[in-house]
Design a protein that fits this description.
The complex is a heterodimer of chains A (about 290) and B (about 425). Chain A is mainly α and about 290 residues long. Chain A has helices at about 1-5, 10-25, 30-40, 45-55, 60-70, 80-90, 90-105, 115-135, 140-150, 155-160, 165-175, 180-185, 190-200, 205-215, 220-225, 230-250, 260-270, 275-290. Chain B folds into two domains: about 15-160, Alpha-Beta Plaits (2-Layer Sandwich); about 175-425, EAL domain (TIM Barrel). Chain B is of the alpha/beta class. In chain B, helix 2 packs across helix 3 (about 95-105) and helix 7 runs parallel beside helix 9 (about 280-290). The chains are: A mainly alpha (about 290), B alpha/beta (about 425).
């Protein structure tokens, strides 16, 4: 695997990554970029730490996953997570491309996204932990993590394009009857779930993750016996929703009404009875509140 | 992982694979038949939903006891969920079918759960080991036969070889098509799809647009569009491929726009996409993600789609126009062209099918039709394009007949994105 990487000219790979990351169109979190450059400037950068920093940013992670999956590397196995992508690209190549991106300031800054990035990273981390801890059948912790990270990747895209989208989000967050995407549909011709699904397909993420992104506010798809949603997709949705609920309980970050609308269906999918939820929340609290 | 299923005490999947491997080796060595019987309970999901997972587990345990009772010398495994596999040494097809009927009888005994009585049934697949066949292939055949029994409505037995081959999406396909379907799934998850772009050139040499054409290649093997597109249409995968190309084509248009080329990218849209109430959301999502000017995106649809009676199709077409994208009629003249409705079609471009072009120099009647169609297109305010042009003499005749733009190998073959940029730079036609 590494032989393939070594044989490819570095600049070609750098260009490929940079172009791919630019394609993604999601602004990276400024704080993450700052942390990344600070670490990369050290005389002996901690590669493990660099990897974990990239792994908490949707735009950079998507870029790396898509690049690693591109036919350029000719990998038979598809890459499903940032860690795997870094293994395939080589940390050096990946880091250099990201560092180049920071300098080129290719992305417009979208204000007030820090809280969003923070919540995404926490939900992703906790989703991975839940998948492992609850031993959810067929669900890999890596997939749960990846889904948690990309679930809402449509939001920064829409924030960058529609000035009024912040108000739409605020309205959708407090609506207790209509689904999140229905509220978006009143003001916009599309919604963040559809945008996210199209992006995920374009990044070559597995079908179950793409469908989970598309339907993560779709109560009917989660509840219906005849739903055509793959079981793995519904488990991904339920795990991340539970993670979001726990994070919100612990930190009071970006409070939404999603648990009121989807919580019961999620618990049923994960086979958790309501009585044991408090104990689970207590166990998960250290993961939900960890600083990285 | 010790090979034992904790719920039933039967072999688990791992144990089953190990045992199957041993039996396969013995069967190869001694040349005696060996059978795999794959059992899947019908409607088990409903049992789980009605009685919860503990209730479901209880049913599985009871069935395991029954299978043990009638199983004789078979090695019995639980493959997970509600699936059981019996490996029966020295058993031919007739014996296996007889055995499967006995198993059916055991499964169908009533089960009492609280004050309710369940009447379980099962779908059963049988495969007999072929010499030199691997244990995995053998198990897979048994699984497929079981799926065939399930797709016939369940409560039945199918022997491998008798079943139609079901695809991943449950649609009957020939074997080659099945392999293409599976390749398409791999392509969608490993970057095996790409778009190639073929320029459409105006009489004055300017580029009118480029048409995006999908290519599929997995592990270095190219599958021609003529093969994978019919399979994608048959399996419904075409909707997903279509969404993928919508965004990919829009990103390409954006890249061209950024490079200073205001060249439209024409993207093919299928009926499977247009009958979805979510088409408009997907189109807008692609426009938003790429941040491209909508007028640089052209959707190519066959004539029949413009006349589709489905309300959703029509409302999607209205939404597309409202979004600012351009519509084009693809393959014009070969479908059931209806002049009465042509006047109502909101397209800005008419693409004459290649069938007219290839016979042009020799067939004066084809030329008459091309002239008439071109005039009709112009009267309706459309740009007229001829597809499939390969020779200078064809192009001369077409331009003489009033056609506005030419697409075909004569000018350029479809090419990957980087090659397209170089081609445009070489022509210097910003």
């Amino acid at each position: 695997m590494n032989d393939i990487v070594r044989e490819t000219p570095d600049t070609a790979v750098d260009n490929l990554i940079e172009r791919t990351i630019l394609d993604i169109g999601i602004p990276p979190c400024p704080i993450i970029l700052e942390r990344f450059t600070t670490e990369a400037r050290q005389d002996e950068p901690d590669f493990k730490r660099l990897a974990s920093i990239i792994g908490t940013d949707v735009g950079l992670s998507a870029g790396l996953i898509k690049t690693a999956n591109s036919p350029y590397f000719g990998m038979r196995q598809r890459v499903r997570s940032v860690n795997e992508a870094i293994v395939i690209l080589g940390l050096k190549t990946a880091s250099r491309a990201v560092a180049g991106l920071v300098l080129s300031k290719a992305f417009p800054n979208v204000a007030n996204l820090e809280r969003f990035w923070d919540a995404s990273a926490r939900i992703a981390l906790l989703s991975g932990w839940l998948a492992q801890h609850l031993n959810i059948p067929g669900l890999r912790a890596e997939d749960a993590y990846t889904f948690g990270l990309f679930r809402d990747c449509g939001i920064p895209v829409l924030l960058g394009r529609f000035p009024r989208y912040e108000n739409v989000l605020a309205a959708a967050n407090v609506d207790v009857t209509r689904s999140f995407t229905e509220v978006e549909g009143v003001e916009l011709p599309t919604n963040h779930a559809m945008v996210g699904c199209l992006l995920a397909q374009n990044w070559w993420l597995p079908e179950e993750i793409c469908l989970a992104i598309r339907h993560h506010h779709d109560r009917a798809a989660l509840e219906s016996i005849d739903s055509r949603l793959p079981v793995l997709s519904s488990r991904l949705i339920a795990t991340a929703q539970l993670a979001e609920y726990i994070v919100q309980q612990q930190l009071g970050l970006s409070l939404t009404q999603e648990w009121t609308k989807l919580g019961a269906a999620c618990l049923r999918i994960l086979d958790i009875d309501e009585g044991s939820l408090d104990a689970l929340c207590a166990e998960a609290a250290p993961v939900a509140t960890s600083s990285e | 992982m010790n090979g034992i299923d904790p719920l039933t005490g039967l072999l688990d999947r791992f144990g089953c694979l190990q045992t199957a491997e041993k039996l396969t080796a013995t069967s190869n060595c001694k040349g005696r038949p060996f059978a795999v019987i794959w059992i899947d309970l019908d409607r088990f999901k409903k049992i789980n939903e009605s009685f919860g997972h503990p209730g479901g587990d209880e049913v599985i345990r009871k069935l395991a006891v029954r299978l043990r009772r009638v199983g004789g010398r078979a090695e019995i495994s639980r493959m997970g969920g509600d699936e059981f596999v019996l490996l029966v040494p020295e058993c031919d097809r007739l014996q296996a079918e007889q055995f499967a009927r006995e198993l059916t009888g055991a499964v169908e005994e009533l089960i009492h759960m609280g004050n309710m009585t369940l009447c379980p049934t099962a779908s059963i697949g049988i495969a007999i080991h072929d010499r030199e066949e691997s244990s995995l292939d053998l198990l897979e055949r048994a699984d497929r036969a079981m799926c065939a029994a399930k797709s016939r409505g369940g409560n039945g037995i199918v022997c491998s070889g008798d079943e139609p081959v079901p695809g991943r999406l449950g649609i009957t396909l020939a074997r080659e098509e099945l392999s293409i379907e599976s390749t398409l799934h791999v392509a969608l998850e490993t970057g095996g799809l790409c778009l190639h772009y073929q320029p459409i050139i105006l009489a004055n040499g300017e580029i009118e647009a480029v048409e995006a054409l999908m290519r599929c290649s997995v592990n270095g093997v190219n599958i021609p569009p003529g093969k994978f597109i019919p399979v994608a249409e048959k399996t419904g995968l075409v909707a997903r491929l279509g969404e993928w190309s919508l965004l990919q084509g829009a990103l390409q248009a954006r890249q061209l726009q950024d490079a200073g080329y205001h060249t439209k990218v024409a993207i093919n849209v299928s009926r499977a996409q247009l009958i979805s109430p979510k088409f408009s959301q997907a189109l807008h999502a692609a426009l938003i993600c790429s941040n491209v000017k909508p007028e640089l995106i052209e959707l190519e649809l066959t004539e029949s789609l413009f006349m589709d009676v489905c309300d959703t199709v029509q409302s999607n077409l209205r939404d597309a126009i409202a979004a600012g994208v351009v519509l084009a009629i693809d393959d014009f003249g070969t479908g059931y062209s209806c002049l009465a409705t042509l006047k109502d079609i909101p397209a800005k471009k008419m693409k004459l099918d290649r069938a007219f072009v290839t016979v042009l120099p020799e067939d004066p009647r084809a030329l008459a039709v091309v002239r008439a169609m071109t005039q009709l297109g112009h009267e309706l305010g459309m740009t007229v394009v001829a597809e499939g042009c390969e020779r200078q003499e064809e192009i001369d005749i077409l331009l003489e007949a009033g056609v506005d733009a030419i697409q075909g190998f004569f000018y350029a073959r479809p090419m990957p994105d980087e090659a397209l940029l170089k081609w445009l730079q070489a022509r210097n036609t910003k």
